[in-house]
Design a protein that fits this description.
Elements (H helix, E strand, L loop, with lengths): L30 H7 L10 H11 L12 H7 L4 H19 L5 H30 L3 H8 L4 E6 L2 E7 L8 E4 L8 E7 L5 E3 L1 H4 L5 E2 L17 E2 L4 E4 L2 E7 L5 H14 L5 H32 E6 L2 E7 L1 H18 L4 H18 L2 E3 L3 H6 L4 E4 L11 E8 L6 E5 L22 H12 L4 E5 L2 E5 L2 H13 L18 H9 E10 L4 E8 L4 E6 L9 H7 L5 E4 L9 H6 L1 E5 L5 E3 L2 H16 L3 E8 L17 H4 L5 H4 L3 E10 L6 H10 L3 E5 L4 H11 L12 E3 H5 L4 H5 L5 E4 L3 H13 L4 E5 L5 H6 L2 E5 L5 H6 L2 E3 L4 H42 L7 H11 L1 H6 L24 H27 L2 E2 L2 E2 L10 H5 L15 E3 L2 E3 L13 H21 L16 H19 L1 H7 L6 H11 L1 H31 L1
Parallel strand pairs: 13-26, 13-29, 22-25, 26-28, 27-28, 29-30, 30-31
Antiparallel strand pairs: 1-2, 1-3, 3-9, 4-7, 4-9, 5-6, 5-8, 10-11, 12-31, 14-15, 14-25, 16-17, 18-19, 18-21, 19-20, 20-24, 22-23, 24-25, 32-33, 34-35
Length: 1093
Amino acid sequence: MGKGGQDYRKPDIVAIKPSDREVFPAWAREIPECEEHYKVNKKSGLGSDEVERRQKIYGYNELDHHEGPSIWSLVLDQFNDTLVRILLAAAVVSFVLALYDGDEGEEKEIKAFVEPLVIFLILIVNAIVGVWQESNAEKALEALKEIQSEHAAVLRDGQKLPNLPAKELVPGDIVELRVGDKVPADMRVLELISSTLRLEQGSLTGESVAVNKTNKAVPEDSDIQGKRCFVFAGTTVVNGHCICMVTQTGMGTEIGQVHEQIQVAALCEEDTPLKKKLNEFGEMLTMIIGVICAVVWLINLKYFLTWEYVDGWPRNFKFSFEKCTYYFEIAVALAVAAIPEGLPAVITTCLALGTREMAKKNALVRKLPSVETLGCTTVICSDKTGTLTTNQMAVSKLVAMGSKVDNLRTFKVDGTTYNPSDGKIHDWPRGGMDANLQMIAKIAAVCNDASIAHAEHKYVANGIPTEAALKVLVEKMGPPEGIKYEESTSESDLLRSCGLWNEYERRIATLEFDRDRKSMGVIVKSSSGKNSLLVKSYRSGYVELIIILEEDLKEIERILISVDKLCQGAVETVLERSTKIQSLDGSVLRLDQNTRKVILDALYDMSTGALRCLGFAYKDELREFEAYDGNDDHPAHALLLDPANYSSIESDLIFVGLVGLRDPPRKEVYQAIKDCRAAGIRVMVITGDNKNTAEAICREIGVFGPNEDLRSKSLIGKEFMELRDQKAHLQQSGGLLFSRAEPRHKQEIVRLLKEDGEVVAMTGDGVNDAPALKLADIGIAMGIAGTEVAKEASDMVLADDNFSSIVAAIGEGRSIYNNMKAFIRYMISSNIGEVASIFLTAALGIPEGLIPVQLLWVNLVTDGPPATALGFNPPDKDIMKKPPRKSNDSLINAWILFRYMVIGLYVGIATVGIFIIWYTHGSFLGINLSGDGHTLVTYSQLSNWGQCSTWTNFTASPFTAGNRILSFDDPCDYFHAGKVKATTLSLSVLVAIEMFNSLNALSEDGSLLTMPPWVNPWLLLAMSVSFGLHFLILYVPFLAQIFGIVPLSFNECLLVFLVAFPTILIDEILKLVGRCTSGSQASSGRMLKPKLE
């Protein structure tokens, strides 16, 4: 091998798939067994030949590269939609007809191509947006690869290769890890070179603090958190130095399994509830269009296909290609009229506006459709740490010694953050701190290397969270007695009291933490020149809390010994090394068995209340260290060089008190949980934390009642996986808790909930959470504590990691959905009217009143602003007091469909009617229409206009259309080119009706008298914009020519308004009928209910 970096890959390498390998449980085997299995000596490493052989077997140590779908396949997928296919067919037919009509002059040719080009443009934009959204799906996998190590220090052929590319590692390689190294593969720890080894693996395992590692074997059935002798690829060494053996590489590692799970979860992604409904609507629309086209063709078959009957059989067939293409155009117009082309753009706009509102509430939406899905969320699966809690340690209880030996004083401490001004200490002595409280403050301030900073409008801890919490406690306790704040301090004003204590007590030596003492310490010299020893302990060690103790020791880094000596470890161990106690007035009394029991009882109460406990002690008589000043030449200095001496130094201590700390619930979470319950949303807490701690927090925030029996509601992950009927457990009403949960448990819970028809929102922050985030209907990543992998796999990111932001986002999602439903119904009802108009035109045999390019303009431009403005409808006040809608609820029920059919029928009658009126009447409703000089015809002539060439003595007079005078060499052109004024009236009536119809859409059943238009001023503005756009194409000659319309006179505009206004009156009557019907049903339901009960 030599220097490393060589490429071992050969053309004939065929790596074994991880699933095909039999995994050797190296974590449960002693080191010699592991060396024998992997045929390696930890002193010399693998040989070059063996490395090359294994490289051929296992391949490179890298994650698989999953080839995502090609751009072309993504583009083609965008056309796998019924509505899109109808539009595409319409565009193709329009294009063919435009080519056919191209020989009728350049002006005609340009107008003929406008329609297909607009449709093609719609399809292209839709495809671009779809491809962009789907291409983001691969980013989670790319982010996962970025956390892999690039190089490793490896032992091969007895030589150390300090910079071997990590991808060349094979099982059996011996790797050296140091502080700051990123672990390159899953490895068994063989030897600890330092006294301790700690790794940050929370992103993979969900553990909130760094983990202590050992080289001792663990049980074979240990979960990932329990594999203390294993280090995992992608995690980081934060403390220590060790030698390890590679056991799994590439896709065989834990992170490789996460990679595979993300890929599988991505394949399981489903359409959002709204998209499913729109797909169903598209399929129904296809059938409706097909039926209507068939009916139109049957009605008009006589115009382009005729025959004679000879001897009872049809003969002499005559086919008119010109008439056939005309009815092709009718079919295209039907397709264009039936499809709400502007709907995708309006939905995207509404969702985008919704994301802005959510961003104001700290919910950053990554995928637009998730805004709508949030509105029907039925279950929230939430992590505890940092989401329901602040992820900031805070002291909640302080226990000090009383005036008598067996008397304790307990103080409740408020506050949930690292802000020293957040909360106070209850029942605090008015005259200031007594000697005992001062000693506690001194130990908490001096035995502490943490600091607090104020940045970006929040307080953050630098260092160990528990120590930061102690500094906050000291600030709440106040400055040392007899020392004023005006005196200079070495620390910022934020921690003035701590700064004063550290000035008064100068640290001169540190006794590092070790697992046996469960304490750390420093020696300090006071301003009086006296040395003393102070002790700070760490945590309770009752049997039910031993597992927690193992985890929490990760936070411990040192204990300070000061002028008094500060020690930190398990409270009981410090209490065992104490022989005296300090009373309230500072006097020292003997620690007898009765007093010891009182202290242990207080400790037990705090521990079972989910508090992390720290104890404090000190020592004045230091013997060898009385004159010690930190000088290396002092005889006592040699004792500090050997950690074996620390226990004897920290003996005969004087116990002074203890504190209870916790990661407190966020203040706003209790109300958020209450809102969830009112909204019919169940909350399930899934945490890797201890069961007792999680239960205590869940009771406090309202997931469970204060006295609720939790035997069937609170399980650890393994217990849930062993249940026979897991779905029955998940179907229980109220909240549920899963503690000590692993990533696979989260995925299984999400999968089962989705199978049961629930819409699941899932929170997560680590690499291990990515598959579950991907699998959930709404994956919610933490913005502060979350990894990039989790964020890329999520649909939404919480900027403040706060549960209440999820609830606020759900409320916003419900409001957005209601508004989307309003404008979808508005647009669909408008399209029903357009279809009715074209159908009546074809059924009555009159000339085509509305051409496809006009319908495109109405659907895309004129309808767009009002539909978008409906997205600004104010939310209902009781929106979070209603149960979540079912994901299969229909957009349009039978009654709403009937209403829109009635309105649509009126739209058809109005648009076709005004077309007929212009041709057949000189005046209507008292309004003169003959001022332009156009020729009046009978209805019979109008409906048989195709036979115009056979009429005798028919003439068409020239008439005024805007600034033009239209004259006709061929009188029959009066029904073709001469219909421009009638077409303009039809189009204007359609636009006016749809504007009035947008007012109807303000409320599904509410009258405009109770919900007037000005409740949504944006809608009034949008209506003005749409009318303005319509006047623009009416009165700008170039645009009028493109759309085949002409300016209207005042009388004609007045007629348009009168014909359109009844739309409001008709819908008001229908709404009244709907309210009366639903009211009578509700009252009869109330009458029946007592009888049923």
